[in-house]
Model the fold of this input.
Amino acid sequence: MPSVEDLIAGLRIIPVVTLHDAAHAAPLADALIEGGLPIAEITFRTAAAADGIRVLAGRDDFCVGAGTVVSTDNANAALAAGARFLVSPGVNPDVVSIAQERCCPVYPGIATPTELTSVVTRFGLEVVKFFPATAIGGLPMLKALAAPFPNIRFIPTGGINAGNVTDWLDHPKVLAVGGSWMVPARAIAEGRFAEITDLAREAVAVSGVA
Done:
C-alpha cells in the first residue's frame, strides 16, 4: 500500500465514520473497498472507536485513521490500536507532538490564519484539516487562508456532501475532503452495507477520481 498521504491524495475523499459497535468495522471496510474508497477516519466520538480501529489496523487492503483526536489520551489510544493517521478538529500541540514522535501523519483542524501560522511554524506541517469548512466561510475562506501559505494543502471537512464536493476538489490547494455522507451512522448501525457501497461508488464517481 502507498504512503498514507499518497493514498489520500489519490483517493481525494476520506469517509468520516461514527462507529457505535466495533463488530461493524470489518463489513464497513469491505463495503467501502467495494465502493472504491479503501480508507476511513474513525472518530473518537464513541467508546467503540479504538476497538474499531484495532479490527482494521492489520488489514493490508484498507487504511484506517482516527478522527476527533482532541487529547493525548485519544492520540495514545488511537496509535496503540494501530491508526495510520490522526485527525483533530482543532490544534492540540501535544497531540501533534505525539504523532510526530511516532512518525504518524497528523492533520490538525485550523480555522484562522493564527492557527495555520502556528502549526506551520512550530511543527512544519504542510497538510492541515480545514474545519468546519462550510460554517467558517467555505471556499472563499479557504482561498484567503491559502494565499499567504503557498506550500500548504488542505483537507476541508464539515458540510461537504455529494452536491458540493466537486467545488472543493477543483481547488488546487485541496488535497482531499473529509465527509460522512457516504457512511451514514444509521446505515452502519442497521447493517445496510450495500447502501454504503453504493454511496461510496457515487462519491468516487462525482469526485472524478475514478
About this structure: The radius of gyration is 16 Å.
